[in-house]
Amino acid sequence: MSGIALLLPGQGSQFVGMGKDLAGAFPSVRELYQRADDALETHLSRLSWQGPEDQLTATQNAQPAILLHSYAVWTLIAPGVAEVGVAAGHSLGEFSAHLIAGTFALEDALRVVRRRGELMAASGDERPGTMAAVLGLEEAALSEIFESVDCGTVVSANLNAPGQIVISGDVAAVEQASTLAAEAGARRVVPLNVSGAFHSPLMEVAVEGLGNALADASVSDPAFPVIANATAEPVTSADQAVDTLLAQLTSPVRWVEGVARMIDYDPADWLEVGPGAVLAGLLRRVDRGLRARSIGDPEAVDAFMSRS
Among residues 45, 48, 70, 91, which one is catalytic? Predict the structure, then answer.
């Protein structure tokens, strides 16, 4: 075994108050939040720490807020990590993984994900879409269901764990697929409160804008492999990073395959860095023999750094 496997959370992990305790406990984190406010010319710190919740949840705000929180935690625990062997992030979290890997500087990463959020929200306004979580059916069964949908586009968007798939597409198509999935034996179908059909062909209108944002950023080869959502394969160069981050907009998050690829690196430990513990839960569902330590607050940072 060698190296640490890093897991970086995606959108939906945000909460009002995120990072406030870290900034109160560590002056270096306060400085990071000031850098973020300056880079985005907005009060991301105040929005993260005080809300209101509806504004923090807005895609263009949630994405930089989560990225910054994950990076802040990483800067605190990095001295206690001898080596990172591999990393992966869920959707937005893939950008956090690349930030930690040195593919982007902090200010560039913040500006890119802020733009990404704006473009994703705008695409939802241009062509309304939605998403739903389907529990208890596998991808093959859903693919058959999609062939029966006759009122728009619907695809598998997040392959999160065995029997846990998020579907995405036109509103009517997702609703029809949800009904068919329930009739086919899905344990539960849960509509998601999102502003668009993320990780589906409906996001194609955002690709050019994100490409422009990435072109304006300085992009370097990552210091360690980052498993791409779109391909479930390791990214080791700047060109690959740009290509896979663009592909991610319209491609499914292949999380189960990505975790399997991470296992190939035989990591000595798994760390979820940032808000929440969603990815630690998904890791157990993918492989019950694996455990991830979730680190997102001062107590968890201190516990990790003081471990024997």
Answer: 91
- Is the sign of the CA dihedral 200, 204, 206, 207 positive or negative? positive
Q: Examine the domain organization and report whether 219 and 94 are in the same domain.
A: yes
* Per-chain mean pLDDT for the chain: 96
**Which of 163, 192, 221 is the last residue in one of the domains?**
192
Residues 289 and 162 in one domain: no
Is there a single domain that holds both residue 135 and residue 51?
no
Both 79 and 104 in a single domain? yes
Q: What are the residue ranges of helices labelled H in the chain?
A: 20-25, 27-40, 44-50, 53-57, 59-77, 92-100, 106-126, 139-148, 171-183, 207-216, 238-248, 255-263, 278-286, 298-305
Q: Which residues contact 32 (CB under 8 A, 6 or more apart)?
A: 68, 71, 72, 75, 106
Of 215, 210, 264, nearest to 92 by C-alpha is 210
Clarify whether 199 is annotated catalytic: yes
Per-residue pLDDT at 216 exceeds 60? yes
173: three-class secondary structure by DSSP: helix
Q: Hey, CA dihedral for 24, 30, 32, 38, is it positive or negative?
A: positive
User: For residue 145, what are the contacts with CB-CB under 8 A and spacing of at least 6?
Assistant: 177, 180, 181, 184
Residues 208 and 290 in one domain: yes
Nearest to 72 by CA among 307, 302, 301: 301
* Residues 302 and 79: beta-carbon distance below 8 Å: no
pLDDT at 124: 84
Partners of 216 in the beta sheet?
A: none
Candidates 90, 156, 199, 251; catalytic one: 199
191 membership: H or E segment, kind and range = strand 188-192
Residues 147-195 pLDDT 10s: 999 999 999 999 999 999 999 999 999 999 999 999 999 999 999 988 8
